[in-house]
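Running this now, will post back.
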Amino acid sequence: MATLRGLRETPRHLLVCEKSNFGHDKSRHRHLVETHYHNYRVSFLIPECGVLSKELNNLVMEAGPYYFVKNLPLHEFITHEFINTFVKKGKLILSLDKDTYEETGLQGHPSKYSGRNIMKFIVSIDLVDSSFNLDSKKYKRTSWSLKEKKPLKFDFLLAWHHTGAEDSSVMSYFSKYQIQEHQPKVAISTVKDLQCPVLRSGELGGEAEASCSAQELFDWLGAAFCNADLNNEPNNFISSYCCPQPSMVVAKACLCTITGFILPEKICVLLEQLCHYFDEPKLAPWVTLSVQGFADSPVSWREQEHGFRKGGEHLYNFVIFNNLDYWLQMAVGANDDCPP
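Update: finished.
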């Protein structure tokens, strides 16, 4: 009976909405983008637009590359050669089941979502901490654990933000392993006669018969990105969703989706360019930028533990208004802390 009751329960989800302006000194838009590390899909929607500008198109096409490495030993990430080559700051965070955790002998803590029977542990290794040097007991024990006691190998997706004149590349560094370079997949389409909710930048909660709320927009975006019908026709048995009211119909809208492993630095540049979209007068009252994280990422924002067994979603969305006000929506699933 308890099992049946559990199946009927809908997993908890959290949606946090806030508003600000990109020109405000205390606006935290850049920090939130920079600390959401593992992004696999970026989508933006521009009403009253048929073709992307040259600047936006160039940014979209320069979203990569990223790399796929097969059977890469985990201990490669703690070698001093790797740290000195690629890591300015950062931690190696492992989400391990109970057996693997005990076999490694590493120090960690139980997952906060384990319940009474602890079956998952989190291990965090600060790669640039002064105590994690080549001659320290901590480094030697960690190296022995991952290289000899419990050698672990995984398939990895890797991406690196190249900051300057470094000659090293991910391809050459991992050349002794099976490594492939990939470019993100880009899909650009023009949606005609799109029914859009009416929004007012100062009314996050909406106003009766005047504007829609952030929650209503969030639901609408999900349907729009899935190309779902929004008219709730009686003979449509696939979708009964309809656009929230009040709404307007735009003659055309440009929808662009980038799928791969997209770095926060790339998203920051794209967000800035979308803000510049309104440097010249436009018919569009707003544009949106949505970012989804990998469902099985060990973290969501910063070092916040992320779970994926009951959904795995962690995403955020910007609504950018023509006066540079913005709405920020952040959503996570059942096994996550409240977004920052």
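The mean pLDDT is 90. More later if anyone needs it.
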